Amino acid sequence: MSNSGFVLLDKIAGETSFKALFPLKRVFSTKRVGHAGTLDLRASGLIIAATGRCTRLLPFVEAKDKCYSFRLHLGYETDTLEWDGDVVAQDEFGIRNSEFGIDDSCCHPGAAGDRIQGFTREALDAVLPQFTGDIEQIPPKYCAVKINGVRASDLMERGRNIELKPRKIHIGELKVIGEGKVTEGCSGKEFATFDLICECSKGTYIRALGRDIGRALETYACVSQIRRHRIGAVTLDKAVRGEDLTRENLLPVDAVLDFPVVRLTDEQVATIRQGNWLPWKEKVEGVGPEGNVFAANMQGEVLSLCHYEPGRIKPKFYLGEDG
Predict the structure, then answer these.
(1) Which sequence positions are flagged as catalytic?
(2) Euclidean distance between CA atoms 30 and 25, whole angstroms
(3) The pTM is what?
(4) Which one-letter DSSP state was computed for residue 113?
(5) pLDDT tens sequence across 53-78
(6) DSSP, residue by residue, 114-162
(7) In this structure, what are the phi and psi dihedrals at residue 10, rounded to the nearest 5 degrees?
(8) Number of H helices and number of E strands within the chain?
(9) CA distance 84 to 183
(10) CB atoms within 10 A of CB 188
């Protein structure tokens, strides 16, 4: 049985994305594992992992859009932008209190009565359209973005003062799905909480989104309970916890990536395996702008990622077993 394929993991909060891969190494007896799209330590949910030669396909998975749910806490901000971090700013219903020089240039506090309105469901619904479509976002300072080869979070731990540049992201949908929940362990005073769901592009930081929504409401905010529910067309309900992983959870590549599949004869497979292109007269339906197609044998087993153009198919890299 092949050791190469995809595995859908349900990462628990409190473990790193790297540690979530340990069961794959044990079950499939390989060190060649990887994952697409790192989840924060405190976040949970879907990770698409790969083993063997299929790790080369992970950049195509990581580029897919994603769906998260999270809880927004209005009233205070922390250094990590999480609900239990060190408080750096606290709102006192109109009296803004920031010990660490938070930039409030986008905020215009009014009277206490006006500020209370900022904590309502109606006020939140009113600002959310600002965060849909193509927008720019500054990542959290505690993140994996590298500055001169060093992670921003590591520089923060060393006491360095860093500035991160805005990045372009796309948010397809952002909406409230609940309100008024109580969360244990909040390090600041929250005046309202809301549960939201977000459909977004690669590179979106939910913690930064929460921060920016708070500032649009002329207050501070942080988040908790980040959970990833979908990557591309793959959903969390098909994922497995690491402790429950078995070899039966290994999926073929075309179960995760929806590139068109062309079937080849044994002779054509041999040609592709040798790195040579194939003449191809038939039109392949559903090919995207990058021209990616999977080449499979007559039994349907995907053996190679190829590039299709009218008249020929060229191999990119081989995915099958040796021999």
Answers:
(1) 40
(2) 5
(3) 0.89
(4) H
(5) 999 999 999 999 999 999 999 999 99
(6) HHHHTTSHHHHHHHGGGGSEEEEEPPPSSSS-EETTEEHHHHHHTT---
(7) -105, 95
(8) 7, 19
(9) 10
(10) 20
